[in-house]
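Sample pair:
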Amino acid sequence: MDSTLAGEIVAVLLTVMVFSYLIGANPLWRIAQSLLVGVSVGYVTLVVLTQVVAPQVARVIQPPAEATAGDTLLAAVPVVFGLLLLLRIAFPGAWPASFALTLVVVVGASLALGGALAGALVPQVLDTLRLVDFNRLDATGIATIAGNIVLVLGVVCALAYFAFGARANGRRPSPVREMSWVGRWVLVLAFGAVLGSLATTFYFALIDRLWFLISTVENWIGI
C-alpha cells in the first residue's frame, strides 16, 4: 500500500466520522473532533517552537557574526520574559511571572487596538468620505453617485443606532430616533449578508467533502 492510498483511506474515514454527527453526538465524531483539535494544537506548537522560539534562543546563544552587543541584548529580552512566564508553572503567584504576563497582555491589547484603528476604523472612515462627481451624469456616473449617497447615509444611520443620548423623559430626539430605526435595518442587512456568505462557505465545504467521497470511492472501484 502506497502513501497516497493510505492517505485517501484516512481522509475518507475521518470525513465519514465527521458526517456521523448527522445522526447525533457519537464516539466516532468525538474522536474526529479530538484529532482535529490535537493535530491543530500540535502543528501550531511545532511552528512556534521551530520558527519563533528556537531561532530567538539561537540568536542569544550563538549570535550572528554581524550582530552587535545591542542586537544580542535586544534578542535576549523576549527570551527572559518567556522564562518568567514559565515560572507560573511552579510559582503561580510570583511577581516576576505576573509582571511578564501583565506586559504580554498590555502589549497584546495595544497591538490589537492599533490594528483595529489602522486596519479597520480609519480605512472605513476614509472610504465613507467619498466625493460626489457631478461632471459624470451618464448612467454609470449616476449609479456611482447614488451608491455613494446610500453608503454615507447608511453609515450615518448605523452610527445613530448606537447614539444613546436621550432626553429627561427617556426618549431620543426626533431626528436621532428615525435615523436609528433606519440604522437598525442597515445593520440587519449587513449581518444578513455576512451570514449568507458564511453559509455559502459552509455549503461549499460540504459539497467539496461529498465530491471527495464520491470521486475517491469511484476511483477505488474503477469507475
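Residues 174-221 form the longest helix (48 residues).
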